[in-house]
Amino acid sequence: MTTSTPSRSVQASGRGAAVGAATLAILNGIFWALLAQSAAEGADIYAAREVGMQASDLARKLRQLTYICGVESIIWFASSMLLLCRRSLGRTLVIASSAFAILHLVGTAIGDSHLIPLALAILPLITLILASARSTGRWVAA
What we know:
The chain is mostly helical. It is built from seven helices and no strands. It has one domain (12-141).
């Protein structure tokens, strides 16, 4: 019984884009973990003030942001590890996480009328492009 192994050129093709996407996914995970930590600290500060309804509402919104960013960070880390293990689920999760991050950051930029979240959306955008590249799909399938 012969087993067919992909040639070395097939294994190497797309490795750069895939490893780049996984590396950027790890960086995105670190970014979202730091964002979750900052939101948690902000929620604690506003909850400690107990000035009124405004501080209470802001603390609640920051806690929600903490949970969203924390889950997103976990997904980034898990998807990057799965992508490095050449699992198609990893590639799918990196693409979905990138799309969610871009939508979240663009929505924040539009809602708050700030341009900083748009600049922060560049990292997930590059990750999305690398993860959805055809060469990454070939590398995962090989």
